[in-house]
Amino acid sequence: MARYWQLPPRYSLSPFRSAMAIALALTFGWAVGSTANSADPPIPHGQDKPPGPPLSPQEAMKKMTLPEGFSVELVASEPEIVNPVAMTFDEKGRIWITESLEYPRREAGPGKDRVKVLEDTDGDGKADKFTIFAEGLNIPSGIAVGHGGVWVANAPDILFMQDTNGDGKADKSEVVVTGFGRTDTHELPNSLTWGPDGYLYGLNGVFNFSKVTHRGKTYEFTCALFRIDPKTRDFELFAEGTSNPWGIAFNTDGSAFLSACVIDHLWHLTETGYYHRQGGPYPAHTWPIQSIVKHKHQKAAYCGIHYFDSDAYPEQYRDKLYMGNIHGGCVNVDRLSRNGSTYFGEGEPDFLVANDAWFMPVVQKTGPDGCLYVLDWYDRYHCYQDANRDPQGIDRLKGRLYRVRHKGTPRAPIANLATETDAQLIERLKSPNVYHRDIAQRLLLERLHPATRSALEQLVLDESVPRKARMHALWTLVGSGSLAPAFHLRLLEQADDGIRAWGVRAAGNFCRVDDSVRNRVIELAGDKSRDVQLQVAIAAGKLEGVNSLPILLRVLAGCGDDVLIPQIVWQNLHPLLENRSDEFMQLVKQVDLKNTPNLARLMPRVTERILAKKKAG
């Protein structure tokens, strides 16, 4: 194979840049020049034929196919951005990316990787200002902006980095959590994403063994969805399972979805759930939850997932999940429908097909203009098999960021939402563009003045307001860590199932609530909504002063044929049977199993769990 390392034109024109590039090549052991006497080129893992030579960004865009009326625009490319891994937008509309020259290095410690800020200063849609915010990193695989700084996944750490003197560069760095593995650099902690409840969520892969000891508690895990409270720095596992997931999306109900590789591609993750694993042992007595799809797209390698919700596109393209398909060289689309307390995903036609094996869509995000942005790693090699076999063949000096635009969608005016008043931000919660709603919610949460809290409470309870605005207002309040008892009770009485469910979920997040709220949550175990019942099953084990056993039984008895709730009940029930099996069996004696089929079906698992109890002494 002719393995070579090409200098982009701007590097070859500058003797300084050429020298620096060659120095980097020597540092990393990259091949410079051609090895034309190689044998026939191998076919990379997951591809059908040798990928051929790389295309320029302009050539690559010409080969892409999209639905009628859509076009691709280049926002940035090499040499300004190289090996981009993660991306997010901030309140100024700036784009933050991480770059990795160190990939696929397994050893921890300082490196040559960076966090870079991209700006479009003249509003023409193309980035023209590039600032290095932080250096010395080692495969930074996730990034989020908020709460006064920048959060970066840089295994083994999750970092909080700040620019305290206003020069655009990080001068302060805090290790918030440490202990993530580096056993598989395709599965590092990734996809840092603000959740609707104000937590920072992230993922870890199935072959990346991690051991996080945080505030007196140790978490040993591989594939998992974790979260961090940005105010308290508390860390916890939200759910476990799947494979090497990369990408988190939240829909307008605040439910979490992720894309995964090798196994099924789409998963709805619920707190305390344990999901099917690609490999490795399950904890004892686990009843694995399955995916929410029965279909497959081109090939089983996904990177990034985004719930697209913007009026910049026609209705048929909104409120759907967009996923980067690495081996397929495209962006897939799935639509969601409700299935009781969970969802079912069905495939739609591909949104973008690159027709170029080098295309690697690692992140998809909605920008200030409402368009979908696609970050492209752009490399001939997609998988660790090839990176390990031929590390010299990895291309480390390419990277692209595209915008997919529909017809004459106007450019977004350059704006800084941080300069807006609380009243203006509350109005932004009604925006048809999810970028504005998400940013406004985060900024309001960071401020949350007493008068603003009152205004948000009124918005949540106003049924004449669009539901999306009401939900974002509610999530802002939930993210604060507490709710006024009177308002909390009103949430639990709302006609909207989703708002009631979030009232229950908030109580579980808070752990300690007013007696009136706690009693109402217990009553909602018999609610007609499967969403509400699901959240009661989760909250029951978290609320102080609550005996969760009878609540779990009541939820199980009333959830009908729901496919998810029995498994969540079991996940929260079986640890209790180690020490409270007698109490549980007394409760079961009061139930008619013939008329409680869910409990009857669960009893073999209960029996097995009780028989497996540890012997005293």
How would you concisely characterize the structure shown here?
The chain is of the alpha+beta class. The protein has 16 helices and 26 strands.
Describe this structure in words.
With 617 residues, the protein is α+β, with helices and mostly antiparallel strands. It has a domain at 41-406: Neuraminidase, CATH 2.120.10.30. The protein is 27% helix and 26% strand. It has 16 helices and 26 strands. The strands form seven sheets. A five-stranded mixed β-sheet has the order 10-11-14-15-19, with no helix packed on it. Strand 10 (190-194) and strand 11 (200-204) form a beta hairpin. Helix 8 packs parallel to helix 10. The N and C termini lie far apart (65 Å). Residues 1-38 have low confidence and may be disordered.
Tags for this entry?
617 residues; alpha+beta; Neuraminidase; five-stranded mixed sheet; 26 strands; globular; disordered N terminus
Number of DSSP helical runs = 16
User: How much strand?
Assistant: 25-35%
Give the rounded overall mean pLDDT.
92
**Uncertain stretches of 5 or more adjacent residues:** 1-38
CATH class of the domain at 41-406: Mainly Beta
Q: State the total count of DSSP E strands.
A: 26
| Helix content estimate | 25-40%
What structural class should be given to the helix and strand makeup?
alpha+beta
What CATH calls the topology of the domain at 41-406 is: Neuraminidase
Question: Judging by the overall fold, what is the CATH architecture of the domain at 41-406?
Answer: 6 Propeller
CATH 4th-level superfamily of the domain at 41-406:
TolB, C-terminal domain
Radius of gyration: 25 Å
Kindly report the spatial arrangement of strands forming the biggest sheet: 10-11-14-15-19
* Span of the ends, CA to CA: 65 Å
* 3D shape: globular
Largest sheet: 5 strands, mixed
